[in-house]
Design goal:
With about 160 residues, the chain is α+β, with helices and mostly antiparallel strands. The protein has a domain at about 5-90: Roll (Endonuclease I-creI). It is about 55% helix and about 15% strand. It has helices at about 5-20, 35-45, 80-85, 95-110, 120-135, 140-155; strands at about 20-25, 25-35, 55, 70-75, 110-115, 115. The strands form two sheets. It has a four-stranded antiparallel sheet with strand order 1-2-4-3. The protein has a two-stranded antiparallel ribbon with strand order 5-6. Helix 5 (about 120-135) crosses helix 6 (about 140-155). It is elongated, with a radius of gyration of 17 Å.
C-alpha cells in the first residue's frame, strides 16, 4: 500500500522525536513509545495497520502516584528496514547514523527466524522487494541490491 508524502513526513517527524531504532534479537526494530494513544494509533495506521500496540505495566512516580499509561508500537524485521530506508532522508544526523548502523548489521549478519538461520538469498530477495516498493523496477532493484551486497562483502 502506498503512503502519501505527508504521511511519510509525519511518521519521520514522530519517530525523530519519540522513536527508537535498534537491533532486537538480531533483527532490525523500530519502536514508538508514548502516552498519547491517538498518536500511536495514527502511526500504526500508516506504518503497519495490523501491528499490535502493547501497554507495558504502569510505573509509579517518585511521589507514589501512578504515571500515565504508556503505549508501545514495535515493528521488527523487514518492515522495519523498509521504513528506515523510506524515512532516512528526512531524519536528523544522529538518527541517520543509527539507521546506517542497523542496515549494515542487517546486511552483514545472519538473521534468524524462530531460531533458524535465514539463507542469504532470502535477504537478497527481501532487499529487492524493498527497493521495488520505493518505485524501482525489478531490474533496477536487483542491481541496487547486488551493489549493496557486493559493497558489504568487500568490507569484510
Amino acid at each position: 500500500m502506498s503512503r502519501s508524502v505527508k504521511e511519510i513526513a509525519w511518521v519521520a517527524g514522530i519517530l525523530e522525536g519519540e522513536g527508537c531504532f535498534s537491533i532486537n534479537k538480531n533483527s532490525p526494530a523500530i519502536r514508538l513509545g508514548m502516552t498519547d494513544l491517538d498518536v500511536v494509533e495514527r502511526a500504526r495506521s500508516i506504518l503497519k495497520k495490523n501491528a499490535k500496540i502493547n501497554t507495558p505495566q504502569s510505573a509509579i512516580g517518585k511521589n507514589g502516584n501512578l504515571l500515565k499509561q504508556r503505549y508501545l508500537l514495535t515493528l521488527i524485521g523487514n518492515i522495519a528496514i523498509q521504513w528506515m530506508m523510506t524515512i532516512y532522508p528526512l531524519m536528523g544526523f544522529r538518527r541517520k547514523m543509527k539507521i546506517q548502523e542497523i542496515i549494515h548489521h542487517w546486511k552483514t549478519h545472519t538473521i534468524t527466524q524462530k531460531g533458524m538461520p535465514v539463507p542469504f538469498s532470502y535477504r537478497e530477495k527481501t532487499m529487492i522487494q524493498i527497493f521495488m516498493a520505493t518505485g524501482l523496477s525489478r531490474a533496477e532493484a536487483e542491481i541496487k541490491a547486488l551493489e549493496l551486497l557486493t559493497a558489504a562483502k568487500s568490507k569484510e
